[in-house]
Structure formats: C-alpha cells, structure tokens
C-alpha cells in the first residue's frame, strides 16, 4: 500500500506542510485524492488526527483553502485529514447530472443499489483511509482520532461517530444534515444509493435515528449552526430533531445557533478554532 | 455615486460583515466589483482601511476566501478592501488570451496604448475607489489608509505607496514583482499597456526605479518572500534589486526570505497576521 500512495502537492503552511496525495482505493475502486496537514514538530513526534468531512460539491481541497484551520492545527500539534466527498472518474451514467447526487455527493454511506456500488465512502473514511494513513505515515497516530464536518460532511461526522463511538475521541459539526430521511437532500440521496424499498437501510445513516438508538459510552456533540443559513430555513438541516432525539440517552448535544451566520466557509472559519481546541482537548486527554 | 453602488454579497464573518459591491467605474468605464470586510464595532465607529491588491488571475474574492485576514482585521478593528485586478467585460480583442495580460492582469497602471485605454487601474485604486468608499460608507475613514498586495499586487502596493507617500500610512508586500521593467511578466505587460517606444513610461511603474528616485518622507517597507517560490527562481520577482536600490535614500526595506514557502495563499495566510498588525500600528498611531 505504501508504494501506491503518490504525493501530488506540497505547500509549506504555518511552519508545517500541507500535502496532497492520490492512491488507488479498494473501497471505491478508483483513484482517490486526500490532503494531510502535518503541523510543525520534531521528526519523532506522533500527531493525533482530525478528519474533516466536506459538504456537497466540495473536494478534498475546500477546507484547507478556506477554513483557516492550519493555523490552529499548527499551534495545537494536531494533523488534519481531508478526504474527497465521493468516488470520481468512474463514468457512471448520470453521476454528474446533479450537484446533490453522484460525484461530490457521496453522503458517507455504503450504497447498496447496484448502479452506485462504488459509492462506499463510509468504508473509505472509516476503514481504508485510516489504514492508508497508518501504513504510510509513522508520524500520524491514527489511534487518537476525531471527526468533524460541514453540511453533508456534518451528517457524515455525526453518523460515523455514533456508529463508531470507540474510534473517535471527539465529534462536532457545522450546519450538519441531521435528519436526512426527512429532508429533500437526504431522500434523494438515500433513494438513489440505498433504494426506496427498505427504509431501515436509510435509518442506518440518519443521525437523528442513530442518536435516539445510541447505547454506547457517554458522548458529547458540538453543533454550530448559522441562524441565517438558507438551508436551515429550507428544512434540510433540522438540528432541533437531533437535539430532541438525543435527550433520551447518553449523548450530550450542544447546539449553538450563531446569529447572522450563513452556510458558507466564512461561518466555518469563524468558529473552527473553537472546534479544533475542543477536539485537541479530547485527543490529548 | 451613492446610488450607483449595489451590494451583491454579504457574509457574516468573525462578528463583522464581508460585503461585495459592484458599481459603474468612471476610471475604467465598466462595471467593477470589490469587497469590503467591516470588522465588528459600534455603529458610530470609524475604521481605517487596508487595501489589498491581488495578483495575476485573481478577482476581488481570492484574498477574502483564502488569506484568513478577516479574523485578524476583526481583532484589530480595521476594514479590508479588495479591488478587482483589471477591468472586465469590455470585450477588447485578445483581452483573455493570456493569464498574464489583459483581464485579471491590470498591473495597477494607467495604460497609454489606445487599445488598452480602459486599463486604468492606477487611477481606479488610488482615486476612484477611495472616493466611492468615502461617499458610501460613513464608518470607513479613508484618510487613514494603508496598502499591501501579492505578486502583481505587491508590485501595485509598492509602486502606489512610493508615488503617494502621504496617502498610505503603511505598505507591505508578499512576493512582489519588484522590478517589472527587468522581468518577463513586466516586459510583456508594459509593452502591451505602455508601448515599447518610450521606456521612461515604464519606469513610472517600476518599484525598483521608484525607490531609487524616492525623495519623500521616511518610509518603511516590509516584504515577505517565500524561499521556495518558483517565480523567485524564474527571476520574475527580484526583491534584491529593490533592496539594493532602496539603500540610496529614505526608505527602509525589511526583506524576509521565508524558507520553504512558495508563491501560494498558504504562504500569505501564514504571515498575514504579522502584516496586518504592522499596518494597524501605523494606522492607529
């Protein structure tokens, strides 16, 4: 696996290095790109990793370009990992017809509909990518990991953390799609990837259903949500449903409505430092 | 003029607001866009302004998306202003044939070649834009202004400050094109916009010539230059020429070679806080 990983980009940034890689993925059977921000530090140091899952239309690059997170990661001594948002280049018929389905819209699930069988971003993010990191980067400590994301990536972070409470030491989200089985984006995606017949498959990837059923160790979840977010108004996000469902069990959700903020990376940039510090506390504790 | 300005974008960001505007420009005779970051503050407060001039291929948006400057501007209580890099939409024959000439390559000069007569970005940035700001935004104090930029925009910042030492209280640059009459980018641009006949016209927009001839009040200039910048290696930037020329007079240049950094916004993001704090000290002194 080490031989298969190819470095395709490198920028020095806040004393560390932002590197971009590509590799042939087993999970999704195509070439996948991802980025790693390595904070400055001694060669012998091992950095915990924070996975960032991006939203619809994004690639592995948006977060590193726009969020201003490297500055904070450099200070905290944590590595940042940004996977892509779907398989690419497979030429599945219709894969690029919509901005909210197919390419750049993987929804961090394992598709069961034959046509979309390569859309296995859940396996890619939770299993293959950590293995690739562990195999290639002795200075990353993938046993100390946490996860966060935005919008579709917030949905990804919440569902993945709820399904793997021992794998991630912290989870938070910006404007996550909290209840996809009950919103237009989610219904379109889940119908396409999971089929319309068996709705129990949908529930496996719905953060609100998962948090209601959660019976793992105590978990804290931080959600920042812009109060002026058009997609909140359009009912795509539904953070209240998630908060309500969380009350029945061992998950403590902090939902902060940030007045005046929208769905953009300007919102994320404003609050990313707070999220990263929270993650670092968990990763170093 | 106030009626002509139209707000076309607004994002809350670090407690303040990033706003995008368009207006019909007298200087360049087309619709121009620019952005303003208003830091948080009382309605009655008046903020000094820092102009950021972007490099080749950029628009008014790149800096605000990528540099992470709003965080610092919010803390310091300064406004950030990003003009576009050239006129657009004039359909001058060949205006988009090159990435380093025409559209997005205005070089912050006033063209004298008839074909490019609308390329008057020097007038736009130094005269019209400050007037538009003063006329429309009572909370911007354009009498307290400073200027900085990157690459072609670093050239713009240096030349504009050297030609207008009383107008700008501070100047700094990231990887500026310091000696355009002596590099490929500059020679192409100046030949096109100013003609090849009279080289004295070129010297009016060459920072190294201008700093050598400077006879204004004492001026400090900070330049950060990535040591791993491909365009430094390609001889497009030539900061040493600028430093050498500055030694003969009343300009103190601090040139910092930042080892390992390239020409990208990751380099700018790393050092922007230091530049902004330096500017704020001058603006508030």
From TrEMBL, chains A, B:
One of its GO terms (molecular function) is carboxylic ester hydrolase activity. One of its GO terms (cellular component) is cytosol. Its EC number is 3.1.2.12. SUPFAM superfamilies: alpha/beta-Hydrolases (SSF53474). It is found in: Cytoplasm. InterPro entries: AB_hydrolase_fold (IPR029058), Esterase-like (IPR000801), S-formylglutathione_hydrol (IPR014186). The keyword Hydrolase applies. Coiled coil: none annotated. The active site is at residues 151, 229, 263. The keyword Nucleus does not apply. Its main location: cytoplasm. One of its GO terms (biological process) is formaldehyde catabolic process. Keywords: Cytoplasm, Hydrolase, Serine esterase. It catalyses: S-formylglutathione + H2O = formate + glutathione + H(+). Belongs to the esterase D family. Serine hydrolase involved in the detoxification of formaldehyde. PANTHER family: S-FORMYLGLUTATHIONE HYDROLASE. This is S-formylglutathione hydrolase. It comes from Chara braunii (Braun's stonewort). The lineage of its organism: Eukaryota, Viridiplantae, Streptophyta, Charophyceae, Charales.
């Amino acid at each position: 696996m080490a031989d298969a990983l190819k470095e395709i980009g490198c920028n020095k940034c806040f004393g560390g290095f932002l590197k971009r890689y590509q590799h042939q993925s087993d999970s999704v059977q195509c070439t996948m790109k991802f980025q790693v921000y390595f904070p400055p530090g001694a060669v012998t140091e091992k950095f915990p990793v924070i996975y960032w899952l991006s939203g619809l239309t994004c690639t592995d690059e948006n977060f590193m370009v726009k969020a201003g997170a490297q500055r904070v990661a450099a200070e905290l001594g944590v590595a940042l990992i940004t996977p892509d948002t779907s398989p690419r280049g497979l030429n599945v018929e219709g894969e690029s017809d919509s901005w909210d389905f197919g390419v750049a819209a993987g929804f961090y699930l394992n598709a069961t509909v034959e046509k979309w069988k390569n859309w296995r971003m859940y396996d890619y993010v939770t299993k293959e990518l950590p293995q690739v990191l562990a195999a290639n980067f002795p200075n990353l400590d993938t046993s100390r990991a946490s996860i966060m994301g935005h919008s579709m990536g917030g949905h990804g972070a919440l569902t993945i953390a709820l399904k793997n409470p021992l794998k991630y030491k912290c989870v938070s989200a910006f404007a996550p799609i909290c209840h996809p089985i009950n919103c237009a984006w989610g219904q379109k995606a889940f119908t396409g990837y999971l089929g319309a017949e068996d709705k129990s498959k949908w529930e496996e990837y719905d953060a609100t259903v998962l948090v209601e059923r959660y019976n793992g160790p105590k978990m804290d979840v931080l959600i920042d949500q812009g109060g002026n977010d058009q997609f909140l108004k359009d009912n795509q996000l539904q953070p209240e449903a998630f908060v309500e469902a969380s009350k029945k069990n061992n998950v403590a959700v902090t939902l902060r409505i940030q007045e005046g903020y929208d769905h953009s990376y300007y919102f994320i940039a404003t609050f990313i430092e707070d999220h990263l510090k929270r993650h670092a506390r968990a990763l170093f504790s």
